[in-house]
Design a protein that fits this description.
225 residues; alpha+beta; 9 helices; 48% helix; elongated
């Protein structure tokens, strides 16, 4: 402006005037993941004036669902009943849930057993658990490209490759219990091992804060503490 460079002034005004829109377009996946993570958190974690802590209640519901699933998996492992159970974490699974049949019920050993009972209408698909409730069953999961696995284990790994969900599998052939997370499959778990893995991964109250911070750092190029 001081040098009366009209062309340069026009370009800079256009570029910096639309910088917010440019950033949103360039970093859309990071922003979406960050907002989903923040949106899943309760508004407050403070327990003031006797108000119940929503985050603690949510963690307790998740723990109750984990205990029920572990009991069900122990029973299905002994009877060699195949199952595929997805625990939603930060990444929302709306499209996966829409592919199945709505259930919206509290998780119990009996419910999981009925869903995956051999011959039941929904036993071939996956059950999705969100915040301690079975939201849908008979869901279709993406398959991994990895070979030498049966369909359930390929679906478990494929789902884990596309988000941060943890997937529990019981084998129809061997009765073994496995979990898939972030593209990795861990086999031959006991029900107590399964419970430990699920609680450590799903009930970390600091995990969502860390995810949001990582998203901000990635968005702005990272910075030192």
């Amino acid at each position: 402006y001081l040098l009366d460079m009209q062309a340069s002034e026009f370009i800079f005004k256009k570029v910096f005037g639309e910088i917010i829109i440019v950033l949103v377009i360039l970093f859309q996946p990071e922003l979406r993941h960050m907002l989903e993570s923040v949106g899943r958190r309760s508004i407050t974690k403070l327990n003031l004036f006797g108000v119940r802590d929503e985050e603690s209640e949510r963690n307790q519901r998740i723990k109750d669902s984990i205990y029920a699933v572990c009991k069900a998996c122990h029973t299905m492992s002994e009877s060699k009943t195949g199952s595929l159970i997805v625990f939603e974490h930060d990444t929302l699974l709306g499209d996966i849930i829409k592919s199945g049949t709505p259930v919206d019920a509290i998780v119990s050993r009996e419910l999981i057993g009925n869903i995956f009972y051999n011959g039941a209408p929904l036993h071939d698909g996956a059950a999705v658990i969100r915040d301690g409730r079975v939201v849908a069953a008979g869901c279709v999961l993406p398959l991994t490209q990895k070979e030498n696995l049966d369909t359930r284990h390929r679906a478990a790994i494929g789902m884990s490759e596309q988000g941060d969900a943890m997937i529990v599998v019981t084998s129809e052939e061997t009765g073994t219990i496995s979990i898939a997370c972030k593209g990795q499959l861990t086999r031959n778990l006991t029900d107590s091992d399964l419970r430990e893995h699920l609680i450590r991964y799903l009930c970390d109250t600091d995990n969502e804060e860390k995810t949001a911070v990582k998203g901000i750092r990635k968005l702005f190029g990272g910075f030192k503490k």
